[in-house]
Amino acid sequence: YELSMALLAAGSGVVSASDDTPTYCVAKPDGVVDQNVLLDALNWVCGKVDCSLLLQGQRCYEPDTVSAHASYAFNEYYYQSGRLTGTCDFNGTAMVTTTDPSHDTCTFRRGRHQSAPTVSLGWSLPVSGTGAVLLVVMTSILF
C-alpha cells in the first residue's frame, strides 16, 4: 500500500478586497499604538526605503507627525515588498487599508494586495516488501 501526506500553506490577507482594489499600508490611528514603538518602526523602515520625501521642504513632510511620516514610509516598504501579506505590520503599528492616504502633493504608491506565496509540499512513501521510496515535491506560486 502507499502512505501519502500533503501540506498546503497559504497566507490570508487582512483586507477583504477584490484583486483590483488598491491597498495601502498605513500607521494605525493615534491613541491605538505607542508612539515610541511607532517611532522605532519609522526609524527601522527608513533604513530600508527612501524616506527623502519626508524631509523638511519636501512634498510629504507635512503634516509633520510621526504617524503621517510612518504611514508614507510603511507604504513604501509595503510597495517595495510586493504588497505581500505580512509586510505591513511593523510591530503591530501598521494596518492595510483601501482608503488612499495621499494628500496635497504627497502621493502614496498603490497596488493590489497580494497573498503570501503558496507553498505546497507533497510526501509520498510507497511501502512494500521490495523497498521504500520517498518523494518530496516543493512548489512556490505567487499570485
UniProtKB/TrEMBL annotation:
<keyword id="KW-0325">Glycoprotein</keyword>
<dbReference type="GO" id="GO:0098552">
    <property type="term" value="C:side of membrane"/>
</dbReference>
<keyword id="KW-1015">Disulfide bond</keyword>
<dbReference type="Pfam" id="PF07983">
    <property type="entry name" value="X8"/>
</dbReference>
<feature type="domain" description="X8">
    <location>
        <begin position="23"/>
        <end position="108"/>
    </location>
</feature>
<keyword id="KW-0732">Signal</keyword>
<dbReference type="GO" id="GO:0005886">
    <property type="term" value="C:plasma membrane"/>
</dbReference>
<dbReference type="InterPro" id="IPR044788">
    <property type="entry name" value="X8_dom_prot"/>
</dbReference>
<dbReference type="GO" id="GO:0009506">
    <property type="term" value="C:plasmodesma"/>
</dbReference>
<protein>
    <recommendedName>
        <fullName>X8 domain-containing protein</fullName>
    </recommendedName>
</protein>
<keyword id="KW-0449">Lipoprotein</keyword>
<keyword id="KW-0472">Membrane</keyword>
<feature type="signal peptide">
    <location>
        <begin position="1"/>
        <end position="17"/>
    </location>
</feature>
<keyword id="KW-0336">GPI-anchor</keyword>
<keyword id="KW-1003">Cell membrane</keyword>
<dbReference type="InterPro" id="IPR012946">
    <property type="entry name" value="X8"/>
</dbReference>
